[in-house]
Amino acid sequence: MSDLLKQFRDKIDAIDAQILALVNERAKLAREIGHLKDDGVIYRPEREAQIIRRLQAENEGPLSPEAVSHIFRAVMSNCRALEKELAIAFLGPLGTYSEEAALKQFGEGRQAVVCGSIDEVFRTVEAGQADYGVVPVENSTEGAVGITLDLLLGSALQVVGEVTLPVHHCLLSAQQDLQQITHVFSHAQSLSQCHEWLNKVLPSAQREAVTSNARAAQMIHELVATQGTFAAAIASKRAAELFDLNILAENIEDDPKNTTRFLVLGNHGVAPSGQDKTSLVMSAHNKPGAVLQLLEPLSRHGVSMTKLESRPSRQNLWNYVFFVDIEGHQQQPSVQAALKELAERATFLKVLGSYPTAII
């Protein structure tokens, strides 16, 4: 070992010792703050968002903003776990993109509550069997996740956060030869997101939709254990590791910018963070110009609408509700004023929650 290399390693060792001491000091302060809380709420999405945004703004590199977020999410997650290890529900099995979104938002210092369906995620959090739930709500290429919107309409849970996750699909199999694949399993949306790639590379392979990408990988693993298979799954790299499968191809999605947005569900409101979003659902009178009249207060009060999605109300034939995302927190005067007028004009209005906008 050269003298120069040893010097650098000695400096790194000294810095690591400083980091360890400082992280433990931070943990002690976080624990003291936990003792001062009187509402029992441990997870503060607005506070964590403020911390990460500030650190990303102060970051001079060479670490990327994503790396800064990942590192400090891990620090905050483990400090939070000193008070309580939060139970986070998501669509399973392990290895789904929902689990990746939960990891991105909450870090490793949490208990995984694996659910068999999206509605089970809602029920689990509503029943107090998990502290929070993470559910997909829309994809950049496939649009809204209808079941999530329908469940939000009738649930008492509040949206307390959002996560955006770039989705890069892999083709996984126990086989080594791509041309041996005769069947492809995955979630219906993933099959659609890889439609053109499959047409080009595996035009003869049969495609079958299952409940999740990770479930597809799990099925391949189980089939191999019992009888061998020439099937493959479209899933994540993490699923390949979890189920001991080969990655035959990476980034097979047709749109390289493919991104899924997830919502974090909880039983409490969230204070303003400074960069927030508010989600609501409402319905309009059945008359000409009703929707335009309903949305007019947003424009007049300078509130930007970022999403408008219609869904059948499931109450009367051809009766619809509108899911809307707006910029700002419901405690802001302009948003508050707009929501008050919306309530007066709408036949139905429900604020689903105000929460920090997603962080890279």
Automatic annotation (TrEMBL):
Residues 87-267 form the Prephenate dehydratase domain. Keywords: Amino-acid biosynthesis, Aromatic amino acid biosynthesis, Coiled coil, Cytoplasm, Isomerase, Lyase, Multifunctional enzyme, Phenylalanine biosynthesis. Pathway: Metabolic intermediate biosynthesis; prephenate biosynthesis; prephenate from chorismate: step 1/1; Amino-acid biosynthesis; L-phenylalanine biosynthesis; phenylpyruvate from prephenate: step 1/1. Its main location: cytoplasm. SMART domains: CM_2 (SM00830). One of its GO terms (molecular function) is prephenate dehydratase activity. Residues 279-356 form the ACT domain. It comes from the Bacteria. The record marks 260 as: Essential for prephenate dehydratase activity. It is found in: Cytoplasm. It catalyses: prephenate + H(+) = 3-phenylpyruvate + CO2 + H2O; chorismate = prephenate. GO terms for cellular component: cytoplasm. GO terms for biological process: chorismate metabolic process; L-phenylalanine biosynthetic process. Residues 1-87 form the Chorismate mutase domain. Signal peptide: none annotated. Its EC number is 4.2.1.51, 5.4.99.5. It holds the Pfam family ACT. Residues 5-32 form a coiled coil. Catalyzes the Claisen rearrangement of chorismate to prephenate and the decarboxylation/dehydration of prephenate to phenylpyruvate. PANTHER family: PREPHENATE DEHYDRATASE P PROTEIN, PREPHENATE DEHYDRATASE-RELATED. This is Bifunctional chorismate mutase/prephenate dehydratase. The lineage of its organism: Bacteria, Pseudomonadati, Pseudomonadota, Betaproteobacteria, Nitrosomonadales.
